[in-house]
Amino acid sequence: MKHLVRTSKNLGHAIREARKAKNLTQKELASMSGVWQETISKIENGSGGAKLETVFDLIAALELEITVTERSKGTSDGLEDIF
Amino acid sequence: MKHLVRTSKNLGHAIREARKAKNLTQKELASMSGVWQETISKIENGSGGAKLETVFDLIAALELEITVTERSKGTSDGLEDIF
DNA sequence: GAGCATTATGATGCTCAGATCATACTGCGG
DNA sequence: CCGCAGTATGATCTGAGCATCATAATGCTC
Prior knowledge:
2 copies of one chain form a homodimer. Chain A is built from 4 helices and 3 strands.
């Protein structure tokens, strides 16, 4: 699954889905990533600007990857899961 | 061009390239995005965890998009510009 | 190399994220 | 219901990002 991310909320959503897909609890992710469970909760709910570093820690622990590309002009090129 | 991003430094690099590709100065980007030129400089040089919001502001102004996907197991699937 | 444009660095004050602990809320199984 | 696992919320404190201004360093062009 591919997540187009434009806001903190989007990112939080993507992270939550990835975590659930791996059947991890916030607490487990916390000990894996070094980020506190409380902080993960806030980030997943998109509660305001987290720090980049923190997000990268989570991304790494969840074995996700982030790519930056030029915005596809034709709105959606079809398959992304935009939310 | 597609940038695989794992660290703040990567992101900064991607942002700088995108800015240059659009022939914008940091100052111009600053007034477009509402982020200070000094802050842009720091972010482009990957000087520590910027805030997500700030980065999203730049991403939006540069008409880039961020996608989050599962990490491709087979190292590189070939074409990304990893740095 | 002078001079201007661009980018980097330094200092300060405010604001807020994150660490930390405690606790409240929300399912869900029994 | 009750209790437990999971998640969210609240408070405090510390540290760091960002706005802001000033200035230094760098890069170009002539």
